[in-house]
Amino acid sequence: MVTSGTVVALLFLAAAASLLPQASAVPGGVVAVPIDAPADARPVATLDGARTMVLRDGDRWLAIVGIPLDTKPGRLELVVGQGGKVTRIGFDVAAKQYDVQKLKVAPSQVNLSKADLERTERERTKIRAALRTYTDRLPETLRLQPPVPGERSSSYGLRRFFNDQPRSPHTGMDIAAPAGTPIAAPAAGTVVDAGDYFFNGNTVVLDHGSGLVTMYCHLSRTDVKPGDAVAAGDTLGAVGATGRVTGPHLHFGVTLNGTMVDPALFLPASPP
User: Fold this and answer.
1) Predicted local confidence at residue 194, as pLDDT
2) Is the distance from CB of 54 to CB of 62 less than 8 angstroms?
3) Is residue 161 very low, low, confident or very high in pLDDT (cuts 50, 70, 90)?
4) Residue 250 maps to a domain
5) Which of 16, 25, 128, 248 is the most buried (most CB within 10 A)?
6) Residues 228, 115 within the same domain
7) Domain with 9 in it: what CATH number?
8) CA separation for the pair 78, 57 (Å, rounded)
9) Neighbours of 158 (CB within 10 A)
10) Which string of DSSP letters, residue by residue, matches 137-162?
11) How confident is the model at residue 89 (pLDDT cuts 50, 70, 90)?
C-alpha cells in the first residue's frame, strides 16, 4: 500500500533527481545508473558493499554512484536488492589521466615522528568514518553552491609529491581565498565532525543525506560543532592555512557512497 508519506517522499525524490551532478564515468567521477523497480518501493543499491544514493526520476529509479579514484578502467557492477531479489547492473568506467603536482612543505610534515604517525593513523580512521556516513534521508539538492568565492584549481586526482616524495593523490578541490574568508555551507546538512587534524588542519564534515558528504579543511577557525544542523549559506568557519599547506586556501571535498569524487561535478561552472 502506498501511504501519504511515501507519496511525499517520491515527489521529493523526483524533484531532487532533476538536479543531478554532472555525469563522468571515469575514476573519481559520478554516474547515474537506471534501476527498474516498482515506484512505491525504493531499491537498495551497493557498490563494493557501500550503499549508494537512489532517487526517483520519472518512471524509473536512478542510483547516483561515486566511482573510486583508484578504479581501473573496465566494468563495475552495482548490486541491487528489491523485494527479496538481488540483481546486478553493470556499467563501464573509462580511463582518465590525472596530472602531477610537486609541493614543498616543512620536512616534519613529510618525515613524520613516531608520535605524529600514531596521531595521523588515529585521525585517518576518524575522518574515514565521518566520510562514510550514510543517513537514510535525501539531500535537498545535488547541485552545490561554491562554499567560498575564488579561483578553483582543477587539482582533484593530482598525483602528489611532497618534497619529491610520492604521496596519495589529491581527493578534493582547492579554492583560492584570503585567510578569514567566511565559508558557507553549499547545501543544508548536519555536522558529523569538526576538529583539528595533522594534515587537514581545522576541519568540518557535513552530512547532506544518502551518502552525500562534504569536507572543508585548513580553516583558521570553525563556527560549528558535531550535531549542528545547518542551512545552505550558513557559516561553517573561515579560510585559513592550518595543517599541511603552502598558503591560505580552502580544501573542499565531496564524498558519495564513501568515496571521494570530483567536487567540480557538483558545482556551477567556474566564472571566467
Assistant:
1) 98
2) yes
3) low
4) yes
5) 16
6) yes
7) 2.60.40.1590
8) 18
9) 18
10) S--S-SSPPPSS-SPBP--TT-EEEE
11) very high
Last residue of a domain, one of 75, 93, 111: 93
Question: Distance (Å, rounded) from C-alpha 97 to C-alpha 91?
Answer: 20
Same domain, 132 and 260: yes
Look at residue 163 and tell me whether its pLDDT is greater than 60.
no
Q: How confident is the model at residue 81 (pLDDT cuts 50, 70, 90)?
A: very high
What percentage of the chain reaches a pLDDT higher than 90? 69
Q: Give domain status of residue 271, yes or no.
A: no
Spatial distance between the Cα atoms of 254 and 260, rounded to a whole number of angstroms? 6
Beta-carbon count within 10 A of 36 CB: 12
Q: Could you identify the residue written with the cell 531499491?
A: 43
Same domain as 171, residue 83: no
Dihedral of alpha carbons 49, 56, 206, 112, sign: positive
Inform me whether the pLDDT recorded for 246 exceeds 50: yes
Question: Which CATH number fits the domain that encloses residue 186?
Answer: 2.70.70.10
Residues 155, 159, 163, 167: what is their CA dihedral angle, to the nearest 10 degrees? Answer: 120
DSSP letters along 173-228, please? EEE---TT-EEE-SS-EEEEEEEEETTTEEEEEEEEETTEEEEEEEEEEE---TT-
